Predict the 3D structure of the following.
Amino acid sequence: MALVTTDYWPQGDFVANSLGMPGVPRVKLPHPVAGSGVANMRSIARQVLPAIIQALAGETPNAALQDS
Amino acid sequence: MSTLLQAADEHAALEALHARGCTDGLPVIIPTAPRVSRMVLASGMDADMVLGTMGPAGGVATVQQVAVAAVMAGCLPDYMPVVIAAVKAVIDPVFDLTEMQSTTHCTAPLIIVNGPARHNCGPIASGFGALGPGFRANASIGRALRLTMINIGGARPGESDMALLGHPGKFTYCLAEDEENSPFTPLHVALGFAAEDSVVTVIGAEAPHSVIFSGNADDPLNHEHLLELLAIGLTNLATNNAILGNGAATVVLNPEHASILAGAGLDRQQVAEKLYALCVHSTAEMARLVPGFARASSSSTTRHSFQSPADILILMAGGSGIYSMVMPSWCAGAHRNSPSSVKVEADQFCELPGLSATTGKPT
């Protein structure tokens, strides 16, 4: 399962397709995350946690895209 | 296997190639079947011979597909052995091509050519302005490699090539070492090849950074000052090499600067050792400015920018004067921006005298 920020979402698609895994679960994060401060990162983590769990459980592969 | 496209004429073909993202943005020579066949013939290899795969798309690089890129780039058939060697060099796992193509860093493959191929497969310029415009072999060999990285490797800006800005060397970045005038052993000999070998060395590199130094023969510390300035340029604290503390990087000494160092009794290895010793930074300064990347250090108050002197590639090229060039690097990837060297297999080359590379007609 991959966490991918909005600006790098096309690259995630490209890599997944290139590796023959177009359906690999991905969860979308806002961009940027790095350097945005601990409080913001905790907030993002809280928002996307359900989508991550769903993706890991295989319940909604590649559909549980969280546009934060 | 290549896909044969159809177009009404060369103009339409060019626009179609642009529209498909198959170019570098500049006009290309249309890779018609006869032109590609001629380029394959020049290589002396089978068209279907597989050189390897190129990431991030994982495309299979055959001699024919490399020939397509060489035609598009404007190469003469004479250049094919060098182009093939450059492609082999970036395909070598040590080069980390997939990661290199995908990084947000601006890195581009710098092609350094040593040995007789500089003359036989060119001429590939090594003097004044060698990294600038005006030299067909330099321009088209580097461009051919880039076109393979686009069309076989699948590099597309903002989609798979995530360089935030890139640099002009991503169009072409190729030069030869001026072995004849260098006071040092050639780069490829230092890397373990025989002097009579032709070798292509490729290393991921930032754009050239100029280092100014006006020598003073009356100053006994003349060479030391030059080395200090080269070190400042090579791994200033804003470079990946300084912050990540590894990777390989390039120093291109102009003849005047090379002469100063050689005149002080230094050989290539000693220059590298001195630069290695000078490329150090305060761990406290790194922690202050870039805490996210500054690795926790033990008791040491300084850290080297390279892991060994061998990580500093030194060659002599360019006109004589007060400017040398340094190219810091990305230095991430599993192999930490290692250079990759491949011997040019020119013995299989098939010379096609008196024929135009682009038309196949007698000239």
